[in-house]
Prior knowledge:
Blueprint: E1 8-12, E2 15-19, H1 24-39, H2 46-75, H3 80-87, H4 91-186, H5 192-265, E3 271-272, H6 279-289, H7 292-300, H8 309-321, E4 330-331, H9 334-343, H10 355-370, H11 380-383, H12 394-408, H13 412-417, E5 419-427, E6 433-440, E7 443-446, H14 447-456, E8 472-473, H15 474-481, E9 484-487, E10 493-495, E11 500-502, E12 504-512, E13 516-522, E14 533-534, E15 538-540, E16 553-566, E17 569-577, E18 584-588, E19 591-594, E20 606-613
Parallel strand pairs: 3-4, 7-13, 8-14
Antiparallel strand pairs: 1-2, 5-6, 5-12, 9-12, 10-11, 13-20, 15-16, 16-17, 16-20, 17-18, 18-19
Helix pairs in contact: 1-2, 4-5, 6-10, 8-9
Amino acid sequence: MGVRICKQSTFVKGKDINVDACDPTQIKTMLNNENKIIKNINDNSIKISIEKVNKLNIKNYSEEKFNLKKSHSESNLDCLRCYNFLFNQNSPNIIKKNILNKNENENKIKNLKELNKKLEENIKNEKINFNQQINNLKNEINSMKEQLGLEKEKNTKLVLDIDKLKKNEQMKNKFFVESNEKVSKNKIKLNENDKNKFDKTNKLSLVQLEQKENEIKNKEERINKKEKKLKDKETELNEKENKIKLKEFELIQRENYIKEIEKKSKVVLIGLNNIGATCYMNATLQCLSNSKQLTEYFLNNYIKDSNKVMANEYYEVLRNLWNPDSIISSYSPNSFKEILSKENPLFAGIAANDSKDLINFLIERFHQELNIMNSKDINNENLNPLYQPDQTNEFLMLKEFMEEFNQKFNSPISNLFYGVMETKSQCQGCKIVKFNFQVYSFLEFPLQQINQYYFNNGKRPLFTNDGKNPDVDLYECFEYNRKIDLMTGDNQMYCNQCNKLCDSLYSTILYSGPNYLIINLNRGKGAVYECKVNFPNQLNIFNYLVYKTEISTYELYAVICHLGPSSMNGHFVAYCRNRIDGKWYLYNDAFVTPCTKKYQYNDGMPYILFYRALRSN
């Protein structure tokens, strides 16, 4: 929507100065100049001058606020800077809170980094110890290899000696054989002394040979033992190297985990630029984006498809709104607006629209595109079977409805945003009661009609003593929703039994609640019906449900407020609990600021309430 800047004449200390009455910075600079002048005054007159200046400032501030409200209401146009001046006077407190929040996040990240440094130091020390052990093992292995090499050299020498001895023995045997042959041939008989000498030498050579062979066997056994030890050392070395690799892998995992925690703990606050009367769209997108389960589905599990036109565009919006590495403070959803205008002409151009209509369209469209069962939409024609059931049997109607619903509809939207509603109608002619069931994703409470209803029943006046509309309690809205209406005149209902239009009693009852409950506080078309609505931060609708399930207690997490004199001429803002840090923020188009007080959304005119079941995240 367009933004106007109001220029007014401001009276400060007897001087008529033409300043921007909507610009708090100019007002602050004037006050700072006044304070500098006060400091130069003597100590005896400081208190008196401060009181005078405060009185003047308070008077001027109240006059300015009255003039701003008056000019704003007369213009019938939005003035965003006037709104910021009226409702965000505590900007220094906001800055301090932002600094404190930033310091808290920085302290958390510092603690995580210190833990990471300690882990790195421990792993470095372990690496040093492991490297020392590995070096020692390598030195031992090298020394053992050197010893084995020496022993192998000795062994080879012994083998060579044995070969020499064997050769000598063979030579001796040959010589003995030849000598025997010669003796036999020449019939030479050896003397007994010669035989004894030869036998002694032969025995000595055999004993030496056996001793050498035993030595070789012993050395081979020693070598085998040392080789086994060497293999054991090598296996130990490999095990320690594997442990080091595991430690390094754990370190990398911890570093990645810390980075993920830093990203997840980083509060992302990105606004949406107004691209031509799109405050209704910006407020709606910010509230839906803080619906935790829906956003986590899109960011973690959603797969783009050419058939999912609106879902694809919404996915891109979420990626920009929740990007922890983003350096921008606001984002322009031009592509989303372009596709939205093509898919639904109601939102084409730069005409003002209603957040309620956009929420209804997006929920239904997302369900159509994400439905696994490929059913187009949820309505009575799809859910009712072809044959006519016995509508007087409540249990049968519910059973058929739920069977048909579970067979045809399965999407993240239907699982999160759809509940079941039961309608009853009783013909005043035949007194037969008929039952029917349908799904709902949105509850609408007409505030003016509710006040009129309680006035007619004598429970409250039509106006308060000061001429204002009386307050409405949200639980009174639920009571009004289940009242029994007499359908007569033009509203008569057709009765199959009587075969004609008949007066009937008609009532609507909530059968079961959804995980995310959206409530529209309808203030009428045209001039806005102004009244305060008392709604709790924690809502319990157990008494208003037919089917008592776990989903009956809800927690408020977002509010869309409307500012302006009429439904089609005003400004929409959103108050949301950020899905990361759980704190409340004001989303005013491109500007995102922390709420400076509890229940700040009551300062505006609450229009749409977003509740989530406490059992859901």
